[in-house]
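Progress against Task 2.4 (sequence-to-structure conversion) is shown through the following example record, which the project officer requested during the mid-term review.
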Amino acid sequence: MTSPHSAVRDPRLRARRPNGRVLVASVVLILGLAVYAALAVTLGEALPDHKLLEAVYIAAAGLVWVWPAIWLVRWASRRSD
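Structure tokens generated for the chain above:
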């Protein structure tokens, strides 16, 4: 019979020790998104008053930040061994 604490001995279930990349990625992501949002709003306000152009811009600006964020998260989750 196994004890309820035996799962902790399983090396696959142990929590990984966080590395410095996670902290760096978190700070860069938060600051980067704040700067990106400010730039996106500033540029969006400068667009001409055209509903289709505004809709395309909002869709594009709402998705463009995803790719750098994915790269940053992947970089942070790599092992630094």
